[in-house]
Amino acid sequence: MTLDVAWAQRWARESAAAITAARDELVELDRQIGDGDHGENLKRGFQAVVAKLDSIDVAPELVSDVLKTVATTLMSSVGGASGPLYGTAFLRAAKVSGLATLDAHAVVALLEGALEGITARGKAAPGEKTMVDAWGPAVDAAVAAADAGATPVEVLEAAARAASAGATQTTGLVATKGRASYLGERSIGHEDPGAASSALILQAAVTAARGADSDASTTTGGVA
Fold first, then answer.
1. Considering the domain boundaries, does residue 113 fall inside one?
2. What residues does the DhaL domain cover (predicted)?
3. Is 108 within the bounds of a domain?
């Protein structure tokens, strides 16, 4: 399973599919502690990403080319805080992904870039019930996996698992950033919608990688 330009394009499409499927859940999570538009905004944004990818005449050569397209499209089409946050995340990730193929440490750099973008834009820290509480554990898990000799896809898998666990753990946190912070202690018991969508997007990266493996098996007649 190679993490290349085709993978990056599949990641964007898988993200769109995952966000669309979870649209109502994300809306409900955001309704509980925010203004209820997170799911719809992200759905619209990633649908715009897919449309943009479909309209590109010249095939991208580098992973960063795809990530830049994702970043700029999200920034221009997603309202609220999530557009700038995710846009900056993908833009920072693109700056360290100017490669045709990513190895394990390049995957780590991509995730670290995304986290840096989110923290720089949102001024958030771990434990404040934000997207950082999904992306932070994801980066930590990715670093550990890469240092242990994991493959690029295994690094992604470790990151996705950690992001999912981190998102779930935001349920017990008090929100101290963003709109949810106005609820104070009342925000306890509700999962952060941004962390939830972050976990979905990172799992979509894994699904995109596994999809490449499935495509290869189909091409070779499904011989294991």
1. yes
2. 6-207
3. yes
